[in-house]
Amino acid sequence: MASTQIEIVPTILATSPEQYQQFIAAYQGFAKRVQLDISDGQFTPTVTIPAAGLTWPENWMMDIHMMVARPSEHLANLIAMKPHMVIFHAETGEDLLPIFDQLRAAGIKCGVALAKPTYPPKVKSFIEAADHVLIFAGKLGQQGSDADILQTEKVPLITKIKSDIEIGWDGGANMKNVRAIAHTGISVINVGAALATSSNPAATYDELVKEADRKGVAL
User: Quick one: 23 exposed, middle or buried, by C-beta within 10 A (0-12, 13-18, 19+)?
Assistant: First the structure.
């Protein structure tokens, strides 16, 4: 397998505007690319702050992971915000293809997230149309869950459908498993609780970057 540049991406899951600002203050000094998790309380039990109208530091590349039941209802607000990428779940029941077309027309990249039970070939058309596939391996709407490492077995199934697609990981990534995740063909590793609970997020981020880039078997 060819060498892949690994990106460690802090994730933000905030239930209030104040908490959102706290995350920005904590991550602003080192973060380059960030994933914002938005949940509507229907697709998952968690209710976060809504995405509409949110802003972030100009130097951030912002991905918005939408855990929502009806993606089409959020599209206009998301386009107005102009993030780097918007990720919707394959399991919503809505056709994501016209939604991807509208995002791309606005200069926004498109991602499709796959929950644990979702078999990649079953959503082949979404993967073919997307710029990014997010393998979700934790608990939707929560940070701090254990990583289901067996979900990495989806990587070859995804690349068989679209060989050059960017593949991300979300769920339980930490210092104990980040190297193993990084050497499966995944190039974006989203990290939530390991940074959110750290007394020094910047130092933890640097350690995660170094560990993900290490070669060989993790002992």
Answer: buried
